[in-house]
User: Which sequence fits this backbone?
């Protein structure tokens, strides 16, 4: 039997026409709110065909593994070369009057060490979707959260938006960095229901792991590859459908790390595009940059196709116990982007501007600049450029 994800609308307002599953779904009443529901079922081929005949079922897709966007090695950097807070200065977060106060942020990651002193004064609402407890034995989620909003540690500033006091944490990856797509999708639905204004994640639907699993189950390699691609596309579609169903001004700004799969240090052509779910429509994909001799340069590991870039090399943030540690990765860039987005929410509210995901994304993209980037930086690598914190005052 195969594990499937089923998407429904409890209100039954969203229905599908008599066409293939997932095609052309739409609400009968465009103004009525949806109530998405995700189910998981083990189905035989016969079960699948019978279930697919249910008109209340919006789509049914194979579940698949997910993986953490594992931080990149630090071999090329010496500890003495790592400058705390360089990303804050590069984005203007160290001088903006905004702090992110009053903004509700959600992170979908490996959990959090809520007892770390950098989270003092932060109300953390956590939920475990991975089934291993909300504690973060991996450390990735804690590092990301520290960059987003961490309080100063021993005179070292690590947090972009230190005024945030309301943090949602969905643990969607186990301590080994592995998870399941249904856990991510359920966590995403949870953040929508909890009215987060910004949601950040740094994970990928793991096609390679899906292929390996299917081959172990006896699938021919070619069929396993085709089936894994089908599952990848289907999970991406569910993610997009959830955002579409919530719709209007209720959808938070979705920020996803573009991925660390490129190997440009070996050959310039060893690069690839955004991982899913960062590649989903309605998600702003964030790439990583780092210091270079002539400006900030795209990190050699960052995938192409980001909408914007943010600092992601040698980023010092919350580490094990009460300490700090440096990490490389588009996850670190994603954390900067989440914090910068929170600063923009505060700025827009101060200006009496309605805050919606499209309007917030527009502010982030328009803030981006190529001015501090190295001469070889391109749209393929950096999108609209390096994002910037809002200027001005709160008066």
Assistant:
């Amino acid at each position: 039997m195969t594990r499937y994800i089923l998407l429904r609308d409890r209100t039954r307002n969203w229905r599908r026409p008599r066409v293939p599953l997932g095609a052309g779904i739409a609400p009968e009443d465009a103004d009525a709110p949806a109530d998405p529901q995700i189910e998981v079922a083990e189905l035989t081929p016969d079960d699948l065909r019978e279930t697919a005949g249910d008109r209340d079922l919006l789509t049914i897709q194979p579940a698949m593994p997910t993986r953490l966007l594992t931080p990149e090695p630090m071999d090329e950097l010496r500890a003495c070369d790592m400058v705390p807070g360089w990303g804050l200065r590069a984005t203007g977060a160290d001088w903006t009057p905004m702090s992110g106060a009053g903004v509700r942020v959600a992170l979908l990651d490996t959990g959090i060490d809520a007892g770390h002193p950098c989270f003092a004064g932060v109300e953390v609402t956590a939920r475990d979707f991975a089934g291993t407890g909300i504690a973060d034995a991996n450390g990735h989620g804690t590092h990301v959260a520290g960059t987003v909003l961490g309080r100063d540690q021993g005179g070292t500033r690590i947090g972009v938006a230190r005024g945030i006091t309301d943090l949602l944490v969905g643990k969607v990856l186990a301590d080994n960095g592995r998870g399941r797509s249904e856990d991510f999708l359920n966590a995403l639905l949870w953040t929508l229901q909890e009215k987060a204004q910004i949601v950040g994640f740094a994970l990928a639907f793991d096609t390679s792991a899906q292929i390996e699993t299917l081959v172990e189950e006896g699938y021919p390699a070619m069929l396993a590859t085709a089936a894994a691609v089908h599952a990848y596309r289907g999970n991406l579609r569910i993610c997009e459908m959830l955002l579409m169903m919530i719709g209007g001004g209720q959808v938070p700004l979705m920020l996803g790390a573009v991925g660390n799969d490129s190997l440009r240090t070996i050959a310039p052509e060893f690069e690839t595009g955004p991982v899913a779910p960062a590649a989903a429509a309605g998600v702003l994909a964030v790439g990583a940059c780092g210091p270079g001799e002539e400006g900030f340069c795209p990190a050699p590991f960052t995938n192409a196709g980001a909408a914007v870039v943010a600092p992601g090399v040698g980023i010092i943030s919350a580490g094990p116990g009460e300490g700090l540690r440096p990490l490389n990765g588009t996850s670190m860039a994603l954390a900067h982007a989440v914090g910068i987005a929170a600063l923009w929410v505060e700025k827009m509210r101060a200006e009496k501007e309605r805050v919606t995901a499209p309007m917030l994304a527009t502010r982030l993209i328009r803030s981006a600049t190529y001015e501090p980037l190295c001469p070889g930086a391109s749209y393929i690598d950096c999108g609209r450029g390096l994002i910037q914190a809002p200027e001005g005052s709160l008066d």
Remarks:
- Residues 7 and 38 are 5 Å apart (CA to CA).
- The radius of gyration is 21 Å.
- The chain is about 25% helix and 25% strand.
- The mean pLDDT is 93.
